[in-house]
Amino acid sequence: MRALSMLFLAVALTAASFLVSCSQTSNPTADQTVKAGSPVASGPVTAKTAYVAMYQSAYKWTPDVVLLRLEPKDADGMQRESGKAMVWEGTFASPRQHSYRVFSYAVAAQPPDLYQGVNIGRAIPWAGATRDVMPVDSSMFKVDSDAAYNTAANDAAAWLKKNPDKKLTTFQLGNGYSFPAPVWYAVWGTKKSGYAAFVCAATGKVLKK
Fold this sequence. Notes:
Layout: H1 8-12, E1 34-35, H2 47-61, E2 66-73, E3 87-94, E4 99-106, E5 117-120, E6 124-125, H3 145-155, H4 157-162, E7 168-174, E8 183-189, E9 194-200, E10 206-207
């Protein structure tokens, strides 16, 4: 069993102002609009499919946009599976504007909180990158979520065999000083009783903290 006290992404990405609204989705308002027009898939998609759609909208918000986090989200009747999901959420920031926004990409709508396509959250003040929460270099985001999930599951196979009741509780892409490149971070179980795997988003290899 691998100690989960080292899990920088879970701790850092739930800190103070950074997550004031990272899980927030609400009806479109003056600060939140839905970008439509692009074709939307009919089933679960990988992270890269959702990322491209969200990035296009984020770039229209501000050309200096950077990705801080990317993760699948559960919604009623639309569960995530094997690195694919019907709903993805990305946190994008603007160093110039000192703010970030949470974008989501949904394959299907679930009003009043979720709309098909790209949903854009309100701008939230952002103090800038830290050692634990750094921008994800898109040129190093080469390994898609399905491949990363399979690698992480293989790494956890022996532990999962002994703990078949433990479910995947965290799966996200992020970046921090502990690793040379962005990583996919997967956790089965809880912080007190679980297993964590780190998969390099550039090479697809399992990394050890």
